[in-house]
Amino acid sequence: MRNETFVKTTGLYLLRFFPDRLAVHLLFLRKFRRVANFKNPVSFNEKVNWRKLYQRDPLIITYADKLAVKDEIEKLIGEQHIIPTLWSGDKAEDIPFNNFTPPYVVKTNHGCGDAVFVRHKDELNVQNICKKITESNSKKYGVERREWAYQHIKPKILVEKMLVTPDGTSPDDYKFFVYDGQVHFVQYDTGRGENHEMAFFDKDWNKLPLTKGHKRIEKEVPKPEHYTLMLELAEKIGKQFDFVRVDFYDTPEGVFFGETTFYPAGGFGLFHPEEWDFKFGEPWVIK
Q1: 62 neighbors 68 (Cβ within 8 angstroms)
Q2: Cα(176)–Cα(188) distance, rounded to whole angstroms?
Q3: Strands 116-118 and 104-108: what pairing?
Q4: Residues 236, 211: Cα–Cα separation, whole Å
Q5: N or C end of the chain: smaller count of CB under 10 Å?
Q6: How many CA atoms lie less than 13 Å away from 247 in the CB half-sphere?
Q7: Which of these, 212, 144, 148, lies nearest to 8 by C-alpha position?
Q8: Beta-carbon neighbour count of residue 43 at 10 Å?
Q9: In Å, what is the CA distance from 232 to each residue of 182, 209, 228, 229, 255?
Q10: How far apart are CA 140 and CA 122, in angstroms?
Q11: Is the omega angle on the peptide bond into residue 224 within 30 degrees of 0, that is, cis?
Q12: Is 33 left (phi over 0), alpha (psi -120 to 50) or beta?
């Protein structure tokens, strides 16, 4: 196992020195055991990888920036849907922790999976948080998998209010797959960090027979209270792009914007069954 990890890590590092097109082809072949068709991409993952190589819309950089996107989304759908930013800056040691009352989140604007959740005062370890966030803020994300937009975001640190449900857990996540301003699919995630499960639906909230990386929810999932509103907001945001995934949280306090994603799973997410990779790619007319 140790040797396998070494080979994998070394291989990913060496790919940094390959031309983008060759690196993405090799990564795709390694993941899907087939050669990607970038001249005429058909599957969803092919189109995500095509975008990484060829789509250079500056607006994608702004919307991939977890801090800058808030201003753009506020203009489109209103301040009431934005999770409040408590602080932003360049250095972790400048974070005024004494000014914040938990729960809150510390993260970078360009990273992935680097968020630190401070739910209670006794969870606050300033030294550990600063070390982790400084490390994350110094990294250039998107290099290994050639995610173009992330490589062009100026790194920043932000602290924002943490959304919690009445029982103290994180709210469920609703991810809208928007093609040219029209939602075609919705991904529902629950139990993240503990017992992560997911389900997929069409626009009319009919459950679809697939999963993607996590256990599929077998029981019925009720339509969220503010589903129609989230649908409208996702399409309003998504009409600016040929494809974007728009994430929302539905809470008792209302609907809150999560993020916009242009390279879901970096273009290497496995659909089960595989046919859904092509069904998710079908509505995406590349521009």
Answers
A1: yes
A2: 9
A3: antiparallel
A4: 27
A5: N
A6: 18
A7: 144
A8: 24
A9: 9, 25, 6, 5, 12
A10: 32
A11: no
A12: left
Residues 6+ apart with CB under 8 A from 64: 110, 149, 150, 153, 260, 261, 262
Q: Counting Cβ atoms within 10 Å, is residue 12 exposed (0-12), middle (13-18) or buried (19+)?
A: middle
Q: In angstroms, rounded to a whole number, what is the distance separating the alpha carbons of residues 181 and 137?
A: 33
Give the pLDDT of residue 4: 44
Start-to-end CA distance of the chain, whole Å, equals 43
pLDDT along the chain (287 residues), means of 10: 44 79 95 96 98 98 98 98 98 97 97 92 95 95 94 97 89 97 97 86 98 92 97 98 98 96 97 98 96
Q: Distance between CA 177 and CA 181 in Å, rounded?
A: 10
Q: Which amino acid is at 179?
A: Y
pLDDT of residue 193: 67
Residue holding tokens 């609703």? 174
Residue 160: CB atoms within 10 A of its CB come to: 21
Strand boundaries in the chain, DSSP class E: 85-89, 104-108, 116-118, 157-161, 173-179, 182-190, 197-202, 207-208, 215-216, 243-251, 254-261
What are the structure tokens assigned to 75, written together? 């203009």
Residue type, 248: F
What DSSP character marks residue 180? T
Beta bridge partners of 175: 187, 247
pTM, entire model:
0.94
